[in-house]
User: Fold these one by one.
Assistant:
Number 1:
Amino acid sequence: MPAPASHELEVIRAVDVTPHMRRVTLNILPGSDFPTDQASAYFKLLFPVPGQDRPLMRTYTIRAQRGAEIDVDFALHEPAGMASHWAKTAEPGDRIQIRGPGPKKMLNHDADWFLLAGDMTSLPAISVNLAQLPAHARGHAVIEITDPADVQDLARPAGIELHWVHAPSADPSGQRLLTAVQGLDWMAGTPSVWVACEFNSMRALRQHFRDYADIPKSHFYISSYWKMGANEDDHKMAKREDNERWETREAS
């Protein structure tokens, strides 16, 4: 498989969407073969490390694309990581290398209803998924936010109910998001389920859906976007090992 393409992008502007979400708009420079229609696709920001050949990579989602512009939303937290620090200090004219974009992970629209769940790291992808649902869609979206002021007005069908979960502190047990999902009305018919969140929350929700509902694999996407106390490389390793254990368990 060929390596993902690399591109250089230039900062156009950076604004605070909410107290803990900052949007950086980047310009795709002339001559780039960056593809169109990439909202919700992921890519990697590349940060050079002095004395090392391999840059640090941090994964983010394209929130929107307008011609040669893309919006990238950064969940802000303390202490700030390399990517969130870059977003907080980004100024027009700054340039950054990226790798990607990779494939989109979208809801299966061939469903009777829809359920999305995640935290502020997956809010950009959830937002795109909601906006692209058919007008008749019904269901729920459960989103953890740091502060009530982080609520966003998301485009969505009238039949999709938003549930904002106030999460001012970390939840090592992974139960907070699960509890919110368990409190929902489970609708009749086949759902399309999309979940992306912290590693421990992902594992709790994955077990819940396995035990509670018979959801076709074609209608079920679940992933961890980060792991509490781990950098991206450590999270990637933990995610791979966890997937292998889960797949072995499911096959037995």
Note: DSSP finds five helices and eleven strands in the chain.
Number 2:
Amino acid sequence: MSQFRRVNDQISVSPQIAPSDLADAAAQGFKHVINNRPDGEEPGQPTSAEMEAAALAAGLSYVHIPVRGGPTREQAEAMHQQMAAAEGPTLAFCRSGTRSIVTYSLGAQAFGGADRQELVEAGADAGYDLGSVLPR
């Protein structure tokens, strides 16, 4: 079973999920899925194509923004654009959830004008330390 961690009303993040978790995500009210994990990162990991098929079958929209290491400015901007366009709650995932919340937070701060301290606090509430990764 997946571990969806609520960040705010707009987004939750999760460590790696299985295609079968997407029906549960839809049942919980998510409308959109963002996969921040590159394909082939570790053996046995579902591919983006498998995740997309399961998301669409569950009635969810899906986008793949693979992040290796720290997110680039372009990846943070793409994440922000996806969040701005999302109609309803989004579930973002990667191996541990860290890249997803960092990419979301950097995009929200740089392109959406979100308050750094509020992002750090929301990250902490979801179990992630953003204090050292968000610019002051």
Note: The chain has one domain: 5-125.
Number 3:
Amino acid sequence: MKKIPITDKISELDIAIKAAKKAEKVILEIYHGDFKTSQKKDNSPVTDADIKSNKVIKEILAQTGHSILSEEDKDDQSRLSMNTVWIVDPLDGTSDFINKTGEFTVMIALIKNKKPILGVIGWPTEKTLFVAQNGKGAYKYANNKWEKLSVTKVREFSKCRVVGSRHHLSDKEKLFIKRLNIKEFASIGSSLKVGKISSGEAEAYITTTNKMKEWDSAASHCIISEAGGKMTDMLGNNITYNNKEVSHKNGILVTNGLIHSKIIKEFKKLE
């Protein structure tokens, strides 16, 4: 793999990339074989791949000495006394993994003073990485080369391409998207929705659910910000990390930045 074109890399960047790539390998081995699926207490699915990916990632990230908040571990909240923590979703899009859509990812973020300063998203089936470091830009690695990411300059709703959840799109969201006069909508799994906006292949991702957690957005948050876009909750509030309560209560809005405040304004009319 070619070296990422980021100068002044923080040491954690290479460690996070290494962890994501090793996790991808483990996930793909399980994906192409037989695997067990079970239900968590909240009725969400979990597979062998979630568990094994988590183990591999934690072993690699442990060398940094930072606390780790992971979807697949019990949170003892000792992280709350730390300024710098890892936030990990070892397999984002478990339903897509089970349904064999190929649209699942590995998400690793480093948080400092409640903000993401590094984000790595691995897309195992496409051998693709999305990587960003605070102040250094966002990059995508595919077909053996790095490409700098930037969002589009689209400002009109009628020309916007919106992406949303394949499994969790609510009637409220469908109505709101229709109300915005948005013609083009695609359902996509996992954090790939934010990958699309960061790559200039879509303009917005709208979700009003209160079920999203910090590990669902942390890595994406760094990537979209560095690609020139924006992520807030649906009311326009900044999203912070390493909080006691890890749920995003007011949904998430991700855009190219230019249409962000207009969408929030329209959404507030519904509330």
Note: The chain has seven helices and 14 strands.
Number 4:
Amino acid sequence: MPFGGRFFGMSSLWITVVALLFLGMGLFGLIAPAALMQPFGIELSSPEARGEVRAVYGGFGLAFGSLLGWVALDGSGELQRGIVLAAAVALGGMALGRLVARAVERPSAFYPAWFYFWVEMLGAGLLVALVFG
């Protein structure tokens, strides 16, 4: 089934939800990098550390959120399908990193590590289902 025809219903809504999550992370990372890292017990004591969070969390979140927002508005074609799949793979990679952390470090509480693991897995699974479902 072609990818594009499904984007004017529930698929567009779910892509928009994931886009908003990425955009929220991106804006938070740009505006308040230390606050974003605080739940993880990470102190950003240098301009370089805050710059890194702004680049990775801020820039990455805004870039993927913008791309997914564009797909939700104009979701047809292989380019859009590739963007959704790339976002799913990125979320899956984040979740995989949390699993490795669980095996090596053993996070002490559900929040934040396991909470974000499940958010990432849900987002990845949802996007994969939209691409291949």
Note: The CA atoms of residues 74 and 88 lie 18 Å apart.
